[in-house]
């Protein structure tokens, strides 16, 4: 699933290769599940002849600023990705679109050709992404509902501690809440909590200002490091988050991971027991119907 580093890498690639160029052709997929709130024909008509003047991001959302509104906005979902033909947006291998595949991909939802021949496509294989056409993307959901961006809008320790003190839920769940901090996903939350030596189920309101400061530093360092490694093509793993990727995965870290899986396993067992009890109860009722006194 794309997280802030992947979306930021896409934004930077657009910024580097596409700014100042005019859209001469566009193809928007006729897919109302992904292309939200506008027909593909109207979307195409609004793009043709426009110039890309900026690329913006907040959390895991990105939008292109054209020389006049409306602007295309991208919510990446689970498998959304930006591809620029002939350009490595990121240097690690991605599976959705291969070099040998047709272009634009059959999974393309947004495709534009620029006046210098450069071609850009937003693909979404599993169709959980959303592509919108908005006059002011920051003024409407989902972007208007996002919390501070984890990379661009770092909090002060006092502010961070004050916000956490009001939240009586597990710290990992809070970090995943995009309305609290935008851009942190599952694997980054795991890594920063491990580096800060904080249990993912610890109540946010119970954390001291010193612990909050440590966590905030880990969030800031982890985001910058993961982005630099993504662009450089290095693997994004827990081994990257300490000493620039030189430390080894410790058994303690594995146990830390397992702690997060206990609740789902318990719930699964409880569900199985409940189903068995319901089946037994249904069986007894059937017996009474078949053998009435």
UniProtKB/TrEMBL annotation:
Residues 2-129 form the Formamidopyrimidine-DNA glycosylase catalytic domain. PROSITE patterns: FPG_CAT. GO terms for molecular function: damaged DNA binding; DNA-(apurinic or apyrimidinic site) endonuclease activity; lyase activity; oxidized purine nucleobase lesion DNA N-glycosylase activity; zinc ion binding. GO terms for biological process: base-excision repair. Keywords: DNA damage, DNA repair, DNA-binding, Glycosidase, Hydrolase, Lyase, Multifunctional enzyme. This is Formamidopyrimidine-DNA glycosylase-like isoform X6. The keyword Disulfide bond does not apply. InterPro entries: FPG_cat, FPG_N, H2TH_FPG, Ribosomal_uS13-like_H2TH. Belongs to the FPG family. It catalyses: Hydrolysis of DNA containing ring-opened 7-methylguanine residues, releasing 2,6-diamino-4-hydroxy-5-(N-methyl)formamidopyrimidine. Gene3D superfamilies: 1.10.8.50, MutM-like, N-terminal (3.20.190.10). GO terms for cellular component: nucleus. It comes from Coffea arabica (Arabian coffee). Pfam families: Fapy_DNA_glyco, H2TH.
